[in-house]
Specification:
single chain; 118 residues; 69% helix
Length: 118
């Protein structure tokens, strides 16, 4: 969605081939697959935290916000066009916040109050 808005509406070369985007030759499909893999890894992390950590939800949110901050800062430091860097950083921020909020809601529904996690 972010790639479509940035490319279609604002004509910003986000993730464009031939080094025009902040990620060089990475295409939209690879970016989407990468986001899916990050979501899957975050789900695994949440599961491990739920079975082993007290206050797992807040610990998970803290970890994910740090990972999201790193994913936002990395494109800003690359040697690319300013619009491409900011659009990629905004896309990474949006993806990170969506994954964090969705899985945080799932964690809240997965644990019953007063019952230990097994």
């Amino acid at each position: 969605m972010v790639v479509l808005v940035a490319r279609g509406l604002f004509d910003v070369p986000v993730l464009a081939p031939e080094g025009q985007g902040a990620w060089g030759g990475v295409g939209t499909v690879a970016y989407a697959v990468g986001a899916a893999l990050v979501a899957l890894a975050a789900t695994g992390l949440l599961h491990l935290l739920l079975i082993s950590t007290p206050r797992a939800k807040s610990f998970f949110v803290s970890i994910m916000l740090l990972v999201t901050a790193i994913a936002v800062v990395i494109p800003l430091g690359l040697d690319a066009e300013r619009g491409a860097r900011f659009a990629t950083a905004a896309g990474n921020l949006l993806i990170g916040l969506v994954i964090t909020s969705t899985l945080s809601g799932v964690a809240g529904a997965a644990v019953r109050a007063g019952r230990p996690v097994r």
